Amino acid sequence: MTQPAELPPASPALTVHAAAASLRSTAGAALADLDTDSYWSCYDRATAWRDGFENGMGGVCSQLAAVFTPELALEIADWLDETASAAARTGAPIPPLALAFTRGAVPVAQR
Length: 111
Prior knowledge:
The chain has five helices and no strands. By secondary structure, the chain is an all-alpha fold. The chain has a domain at 12-41 and 70-105.
C-alpha cells in the first residue's frame, strides 16, 4: 500500500485563520456557559467573568484570565482574520502578535 502524499505546511495566513476560528469557537462556548451554567448565576452578568475568576481561583493568574473576556477574544479573532486576509491579499508579513496566537490555538502539526 502506498503512503499518502505529505502536504506542505499551511501558509502563515491560513494558520492565523485557524487560530481565529479556534479562539472564536472557544469564546462562543464560554459566552454560552456564562448564560447557562449555574456557577455564574450569583454574579452580575456585566462583571461575572472577572468576578468568577477572581473569586474562584484568586491570585494574579485569575486576574489575568479575568481581563481576557470572551468578548475580547471575539474581537481578537476578528482582528486575526482581518490581518491574515490582508497579508494573503497583499503579501505583507503577518505581525508577530498574530503569529503568537497560533502557538496556543493551533496544534503543532497544523502550523
